[in-house]
Amino acid sequence: MQTDTNGAGTASRQSDWQASRRSVLSSIGAAAGIGLFSGSEQAQAGAGLPGAGALFFVTTGAGQSNGGGNGNANGNGNGNGNGTEYLVLDSGRGKVAFTTGGTADEAFQYAFDNVPDSGGAVIASADTFHFGGPATMGDNTALTGQQGTRFVATQTGTDEDPAPSESQSNPLATGHDLIRVRGNNTAVTDIEFDANGTQLSNQAIQADQCDSVYIARNRTVNGFQMALSFTRCTGVTVAHNEVLNPNWYGITSRAAPTGSDRDLRQSSDVVIAGNRVVGVKFNNIAPYNVSNFAVIGNVAVDGGHSLIACSPAQRGTIVGNVCRDLTEFAPDPGGEAGIEIEYKETHLRDEVAGTPEARSSDITISGNQVDSCPVGILARTVPADADNTEARTEKRPYSFTITGNTVTDASAAGIRLRSGDAGVVATNTVRNAGTAIDIDTEYTAGIEQGLNVTR
Q1: E strands, 24-132, in order
Q2: Which of 2, 165, 235, 446 could be disulfide-bonded to 72 (CB atoms 3.0-4.6 Å)?
Q3: How many structural domains are present in the chain?
Q4: CATH number of the domain residue 242 falls in
Q5: End-to-end CA, the chain
Q6: Domain of 111?
Q7: pLDDT of residue 169
Q8: CB-neighbour burial class of residue 30 (10 A; exposed 0-12, middle 13-18, buried 19+)
Q9: Residue 420 contacts residue 395 (beta carbons within 8 Å)
Q10: For residue range 55-82, what is the model confidence (pLDDT) as tens digits?
Q11: pTM of the predicted model over 0.70
């Protein structure tokens, strides 16, 4: 890799891809405020938008063949093997600032590292970018793609999945994160993330220890252990993404690899809205150890554990979601549901165990449609020791409202409370359920019921 010095080698490379890229650069430049590019790829004076700020455009040198080398003067032979050269255009300099014949993460990392403290944007062209490892964003950075932008992961090895499904055969392919967010006031939008068949130790996007994170209008395909992940964050919005067939979780506050320092950390002020999550072994949407949250208007389809699961969570709403077609995989006691709130001992770090944050509480579940799940809506306690029945009294979810939901074709139960305290179950419609409303009186207390319609 190298930073451009405006020498003859770089000028030759620019001429090779200039014609095929001129229309793209012109349209992106105009939209983003970098201005149109002249024949020498210098930004035309006066064509930018005042106050546009720092902006980097990452693209490919289409049709380049570097013979496996890196396409730069140092010739160290670390090419990506697919004949692609990656370039970074700097709006401030009005020219190519960086090139590499390596992997795309090198180009994006250059752009991220050069965003000033005041902030800026990194725009990816409508191309396929092959990553060899993660690229990490810092503070005040927006990363955005466009129709056709695709980030592809690389397999890093193999490992054993501790809970393989019937369709999986160990060992499974391991991969790497594509984008890591490690700064405040950040956004990742409009990109397709391709796991390339990898299923363990990776995420498409993983945000950790951030304040104000916006993840929207992305698509994930072909794997990932966990598709969209946030941990130890405040002010998270995950909206209008499509997540297809990840291994363990779709949208989650867990982190891969499981058991790592980031896994099962607490986050707050979280909005998960308008997403479609399909084909997951465990939970489609899993806000674990989250407080002050809203899960609104999502479509969750084809999971193996509860499709939307708070395990645990506090002070939140689960409203207006569509949950359907759950096929249980290694279910916990009481079965798996379209929506669940629970205490689960194995989801607690030492600093949370024994505190009020260990239990699910103050949650409203309203206006959801749940169809073809063994249980429609579920509240329960799952201790590490299945014989510890005292935990179902001492660690039960409390202060919750289940109202105005419609549950159909629940083979086991429409609404099931295996444990719970100070809850309301009212004005729900349950149709064609094994048991319409199943409340275990031994492990529940203070449950108010009324105006539920069952048929």
Answers
A1: 54-61, 85-90, 95-100, 120-124, 128-130
A2: 2
A3: 1
A4: 2.160.20.10
A5: 67
A6: 53-62+82-454
A7: 97
A8: middle
A9: no
A10: 999 999 864 333 333 333 333 334 455 6
A11: yes
